[in-house]
Specification:
The protein is of the alpha/beta class. The chain contains 4 helices and 5 strands, in the order ααβββαβαβ. The protein has a domain of about 70 residues: 2-Layer Sandwich (Nucleotidyltransferase, domain 5).
Length: about 140
């Protein structure tokens, strides 16, 4: 098998023939130009319009705050509370529509099992949104 460049030196040809590469690329370009509009076929559906009451949208429901100290003392909106009072108040709040969110504040050193007990009480009474209040991080951290 001999390679010849057509010159007098008789060495292999150093040029690459790009014509077949260009032909393949043009064929692929044409195929993609034809198939791309076909891939965007969607079923036309008329979606219903939502009616939003602006008065209800502007009403912000204040959250209920439950505080738990390191010793296990409970506070309902910064008022001392017992477990039974907490259960009854949460069941009342769960019946409201829309439900207010429940925020739990706990000391840094409060054992997690005490916080977990409060979360379980809230869930058992039917509260859907339970959140935790923390201190925002400082700018340098």
């Amino acid at each position: 098998m001999a390679f010849s460049s057509g010159n007098d030196s008789g060495g292999p040809m150093a040029e690459i023939n790009v014509t077949p590469l260009v032909d393949v690329m043009l064929v692929l370009l044409i195929i993609f130009m034809i198939t791309t509009p076909l891939m965007n076929h969607r079923v036309k559906v008329q979606l219903p319009e939502a009616v939003v009451d602006k008065k209800e949208e502007n009403k912000k429901i204040p959250p209920v705050t439950i505080a738990v100290t390191e010793s296990g003392a409970l506070f309902w909106n910064d008022e001392p509370a017992t477990r039974q009072l907490l259960e009854s108040e949460l069941s009342v709040e769960a019946q409201k529509s829309p439900q207010p969110p429940v925020n739990i504040r706990a000391d840094k050193t409060t054992p997690y099992r005490l916080v977990n007990d409060v979360v379980k009480i809230a869930q058992a009474q039917g509260i859907a949104k339970v959140g935790f209040v923390t201190t925002p991080p400082k700018k340098g951290q």
